[in-house]
């Protein structure tokens, strides 16, 4: 499994949960995972040909000892997440991974319905479905004007020289990139991030004036 890149997009705080449950009936032991949150991510490392990845998290609302693994499939393609990331949000426990890659023989994820399965340490499992959809035109050249209008929301992520996330929020004051660099101490580069429903686009890195991609 691929390791996440140096810059970590902390949309939510992650916490590890250990489930210690004793003396439950068979009905109570069953795992319940009624939904999955899936986001398709376009990562523009430069102005063209974005890398694509899939973020999948399954909501676990029943009492489970520990989520053992989460898997997703679409036709002949299959992804298995061992030791998934666990966190709490919206009064639910979520398990999954943020950096699934397209199938080895493809450069992008197939669009359509996917199936998921969540398995706990006792061998109980739950299944469900989610959808992956996106505009094929997003694979073209990155143009910020393509993300204007009411369809897309915009946030800005600001990083240090070593890729540490320093700031992530909406640009409520409509500040220029130069103004943001000036106000955030130790900032070296930023990225504009656009989202429309379950599609997220990470714009190319914009470096602080006088600083190149090598931090010099």
Explain this structure to me?
Helix content is 5%, strand content 42%. The chain has two helices and 13 strands, in the order αββββββββββαβββ. Strands 1, 2, 5, 6, 9, 10, 11, 12 and 13 form a nine-stranded mixed sheet that branches.
Task: Chart the SSEs and their pairings.
Layout: H1 26-29, E1 35-43, E2 51-60, E3 67-74, E4 77-82, E5 85-89, E6 92-100, E7 112-120, E8 125-132, E9 153-159, E10 165-169, H2 177-183, E11 189-196, E12 199-202, E13 206-207
Parallel strand pairs: 1-12
Antiparallel strand pairs: 1-2, 2-6, 3-4, 3-7, 5-6, 7-8, 9-10, 9-11, 11-12, 11-13
Q: Could you give the distance between the termini? A: 32 Å
Number of contiguous helices:
2
Shape: globular
**Multimeric organization:** single chain
Calculate Rg over CA atoms: 19 Å
SSE pattern? HEEEEEEEEEEHEEE
Fraction of residues in helices? under 10%
Return the structural class: mainly beta
Q: What characterizes the major β-sheet?
A: 9 strands, mixed
Residue stretches low in confidence (pLDDT < 50, at least 5 long) are 6-29
Approximate strand percentage? 35-45%
- Compute the average pLDDT: 80
**Number of beta strands:** 13
Features:
216 residues, four-stranded antiparallel beta sheet, 2 helices
Short characterization:
It contains 2 helices and 13 strands; from the N terminus they run H-E-E-E-E-E-E-E-E-E-E-H-E-E-E. With 216 residues, it is mainly β.
